[in-house]
Amino acid sequence: MIPAPGRRFCGEHGQQEEENDRKRIPCPLDPKHTVYEDQLQKHLKKCNSREKPKPVYFVQDINAGLKDVAEIPEKQVPISSLSKEELENLIIKLKKASNGLELRLKEQILSHQALQEALHDPKNGESAFKHLKQQASILGNMEKLHLLGPGRCFVEFGAGRGKLSHWVDVALQNVENVQFLLVERATMRFKVDGKHKRRDSVFERLQVDIQHLCLKKVPVLEKKKLPVVGIGKHLCGAATDLALRCLVESYTACCDGENEEPAPKRSRTDKTEVASNNSADNESNKEDCKPVAGIVIALCCHHKCDWTHYVGREFFKSVGLGPVEFHYFQRMSSWATCGMRETTTKTSTSEDQTNDTEEHEQTFSKTESGSDTLQGILTVEERKEIGCLCKLLIDHGRIEYLQQRGYNAALQYYTESAVSLENVLLTAVPSPSLIPEPTT
Predict the structure, then answer these.
(1) Does the N terminus or the C terminus of the chain have fewer Cβ atoms within 10 A?
(2) pLDDT over 90, % of the chain
């Protein structure tokens, strides 16, 4: 803050001036800043932390998931407090539940022409290069799934500065009727949105938590009814589950309800003649009506998942697991990327200062990860293997959730682990209609 004319200190430190008898108090809306007590009421009317009117697409907890409070587990003890027997029992349950799962995912490391110039630009440093490689592979996977095309609305969840949408826009230079919705609950600086003003594509930011986002009520989707492609790069923990439910439950259910129309009445003599035509028309309509054309999300931060929001609860129950096991598995998932190695903390210090805020890889203290207790029980490699199993199990629950709702869903490695330890991409497209083949 700049001091007022004739003052030595700014408003925040004005009490240090002896001649200043006005008292400053913490703002009741946000104690991070202070305000003169005699101007409190005036300040509350214009404070940036005041509650703002909710947008039309805000619906409280529409994507939250679990409604039964009784099923939400009580606070669990940390992993470091578990006995050796308790930890071994958890690992046995994990390996039993993971039995039959494909432990080694398919590598689908692709690229896209839209990023070739940036990838070969020497001005980009190592951190920027890593992000570009990930974005290029995400676009390459989108192109392989035929998701880059006209007449679509791309919804980027956890958009941050909006770089992934930016590159999708670059890839669609000559494509018409494209809309971008960038969902981000926080106010972001250094957004790249301004670079698109000269283009025909439309960018709109939705400042709302995914938990409360009702896509059906977003004005542009109400008006244009474009097929939606959900995308995200490093969508943290529970945010992935909220986004999936937002797309395949909240939005799809609303669209399905709108598209259902009563069948026209026909005479008895007409029924036989048009039966086959009606069947074909219905299948065609189902094929044409795809409110969600596809989902492409780079996963991360499984330790931030939440049983309340998790979409794979039914899968966990089907393999004999519940909220208690989920709590420990989501904590143990961090072993896959941190390994409790001291070198991780040392090498990450300088990188964290330059890394883009979109990257969510984090290190954990020894106390949080329970390494002091685990010394002598599990080696670093064993902990890493268990962490990977936890991540795979959580992700498989998401795959089953999508498959049960009519999607061809898959997990794949979309970049090398040297580029990002969080290198798994979740993709899903609607399953084709099961039209019986003609008999010969």
Answers:
(1) C
(2) 57
